From TrEMBL:
SMART domains: AAA (SM00382). It is found in: Cell membrane. One of its GO terms (cellular component) is plasma membrane. Its EC number is 7.6.2.2. GO terms for molecular function: ABC-type xenobiotic transporter activity; ATP binding; ATP hydrolysis activity. InterPro entries: AAA+_ATPase, ABC_transporter-like_ATP-bd, ABC_transporter-like_CS, ABC_transporter_ATP-binding, P-loop_NTPase. The keyword ATP-binding applies. Belongs to the ABC transporter superfamily. Drug exporter-1 (DrugE1) (TC 3.A.1.105) family. The keyword Transmembrane helix does not apply. This is ABC-type xenobiotic transporter. GO terms for biological process: response to antibiotic.
Length: 292
């Protein structure tokens, strides 16, 4: 029994129960539960102010909590040791590195902080900065700078990588390149938690995601599963022979279309069948429908 429980606990890189955090009169995190399995890319999706950053800061051990249980790689981040910290990769925005150093010098320098660092040259290649190895940091573009930040986040060979809004401010091309990098890291077996308010990012990258609103998880699952569970019915629209538009909401759109085909004896005028997108689900769950 005990053995079984231990194995279960080890399946989870992150296990959070009933997490709470208040800033003065503001409740930022309000009973949040989260379970992230090892090897998973997990997306924490939610609007600004939902409590995502606060949650990530608590997981990193950089912010205290007011309640709840938190286990990250088997330890409580509030009392995490240096050895524990070296297993958790944190990507800071604009990690303070001397602007005069080159990319190679910087990555090598940061490698010295860890007991078992990755090979700096390999990490530089991984983040796609090989051609910039000898460039000074001050000469990097914004996107290249962000890649360096990721290199510094993974140089210690972390088992878990925590990314808070990693692509905010990126142009679409830089965002796509960054997604490729995340996938590479995931393929290597790194567990990744990323927060985002970009739905497309969560849908593209995450094996599973949790939608957070007002400090709580309001839905959790795979992108496809969430759409199926919360999306509601498909909508079938067509035009009647007298020109009047018709719409039917149904769980069985194929059956509706088959019946219409039979009735119209062939082509159905103006036929459309639409299913809810993940965006519809997201807006519904976060109570932002009115904003559309
Ligand atoms: P998200 O990352 O989802 O945008 P945050 O965790 O940053 O959400 O913020 C959640 C809530 O907590 C917001 O209402 C925010 O204004 C508040 N908050 C965040 N950080 C602080 C802080 N250091 N001091 C006071 N209030 C904060």
């Amino acid at each position: 029994m005990l053995k079984g429980m231990t194995a279960h606990a080890n399946d989870f890189a992150v296990d959070v129960r009933g997490l709470r955090k208040r800033y003065g009169g503001v409740t930022a995190v309000d009973g949040l539960d989260l379970g992230i399995r090892r090897g998973e890319v997990f997306g924490l999706l939610g609007p600004n102010g939902a409590g995502k950053s606060t949650t990530v800061e608590i997981l990193q051990g950089n912010r205290s909590r007011d309640g709840g249980e938190v286990s990250v790689l088997g330890a409580d981040p509030a009392t995490g040791t240096r050895a524990w910290r070296s297993r958790v990769g944190i990507v800071w925005q604009d990690e303070s590195a001397p602007a005069e150093l080159t990319v190679r010098e910087t990555v090598r320098h940061f490698a010295r902080y860890y007991p078992r660092p990755r090979d700096p040259a390999e990490v530089i290649r991984l983040v796609g900065l090989e051609a910039k190895s000898d460039s000074r940091i001050k000469a990097l573009s914004g996107g290249q700078r962000r890649r360096l930040d990721v290199a510094l986040g993974v140089i210690g060979g972390p088992e878990l990588l925590l990314l808070d809004e990693p692509t905010t401010g990126f142009d679409p091309a830089a965002r796509r390149q960054f997604w490729d990098l995340i996938r590479l890291l995931a393929d290597e077996g790194t567990t990744i938690l990323l927060t985002t308010h970009y739905l497309e990012e969560a849908e593209t990258l995450a094996d599973r995601l949790a939608v957070v609103a007002r400090g709580r998880v309001v839905a959790e699952g795979t992108p496809t599963g969430l759409r199926r569970r919360y999306g509601g019915e498909a909508s079938v629209t067509w035009t009647e022979a007298d020109g009047s538009p018709r719409r039917e909401l149904t769980d069985t759109p194929t059956r509706t279309v088959a019946a219409l085909m039979h009735r119209f004896d062939g082509e159905i005028p103006g036929l459309t069948v639409t299913r809810p997108t993940l965006e519809d689900v997201y807006l519904r769950l976060t109570g932002q429908e009115a904003a559309r």
